[in-house]
Amino acid sequence: MSNDSNALPRGIRPYKRGYIVDVSINGKRLTKTAKTLRAAVKARAELVEVIQKETGRRGHWTLATAIERTKEAVWQGTASYDTVCHNCRSLVAFFGPSTPIESITTDGIDAFIRHCQADKGNSGATINRKLSCLSRILRTAHERGKLAVLPKMPRRSEGEHRVRFLSCEEEARLTIILERLALPDVEDAVLCLLYTGFRCGELWRLERRDIDLERGTLTAWKTKNHHPRTIPLVEKLRPIIARRLAACPHDTDRLFPGCGNEWLRRPWAIIRHHMGMDDDPQFVPHMLRHTCATRLSQAGLSLTLIKEWMGHTTIQTTARYAHFSPEDLRAAAKLLSTPTPADR
């Protein structure tokens, strides 16, 4: 354990084989010991709450309260709602639901980042999504007079990562595993994600009225960037879509009722294990979207058309897949090899 107490949140310092928590507010002081840093952070929040109650303070928000208010005011009905809820659970697991919102300081946020890195193995991008979630929660409290000062919100470097996609061999193995698991809804969802390139949330919200079998199109109306888009139906998906439409008598019925990111999380973990990908952090459902974009690029589709298919806001996002289609570069190489008039 490091003896550098400057790296610890305020009021927490090393003590024997653990930590001691020392909280003092308006002359009221309480202390407590903890075995781990995570327990110490929670203990600090609990002591702050005890002192506040004893000194007669009223009307403060806990983290749980701030989360619920932010869900109601900001996130309810948005495309990212399921992801936000997942990130909120990570915040609650670390800080504790009863933590007073004003006790979440920059020091505590730094401790949360270290926990995400060391204990959870989260990437910079994942940590930033969690910090963005916390930032919005704190701003909600600040806007409603429950938080006097917003703490600084550090960000992690996300860096450039390779685009993880399924090879043809991996897809064949995946298909066999899905059939063996006998989870028809999961199999349908995985194949739809793979051959539409939809984000998970876009697929879960797909309704009967969004599908035109006669024209062979699927329309995602509620998207991450609020720009609806229509894509052609891949023939491989037609029997799956037709079968699921038969179970949807009403126009507003969803093709995957009751399904969502949490629903897919457990079966995906099983799939991941059978695929031998437990140690591959990029083997996630979103990888199916990467696979679709990669294959469109490998087929020689222009970046502009891939952008429209995937629903990217900018061409810069689509450009991640450009190197998967080297045909234009080969054509350029041929041009360079062609003798110029001066060479003749």
Architecture overview:
This protein is mainly alpha-helical and 344 residues long. A three-stranded antiparallel β-sheet has the order 1-2-3, covered by helices on one side. A three-stranded antiparallel β-sheet has the order 4-5-6, with no helix packed on it. The longest helix has 20 residues, at 124-143. The protein folds into two domains: 5-143, no CATH class; 168-328, Intergrase catalytic core (hpI Integrase, Chain A). A hairpin with a 2-residue loop joins strand 1 and strand 2 (18-25). The protein is built from 14 helices and six strands. The protein has helices at 37-54, 63-75, 81-95, 106-119, 124-143, 168-181, 184-196, 200-204, 238-246, 261-274, 286-298, 303-310, 315-318, 327-337; strands spanning 12-15, 18-25, 28-34, 211-212, 217-220, 229-232.
Q: How is the topology of this model organized?
A:
Elements: E1 12-15, E2 18-25, E3 28-34, H1 37-54, H2 63-75, H3 81-95, H4 106-119, H5 124-143, H6 168-181, H7 184-196, H8 200-204, E4 211-212, E5 217-220, E6 229-232, H9 238-246, H10 261-274, H11 286-298, H12 303-310, H13 315-318, H14 327-337
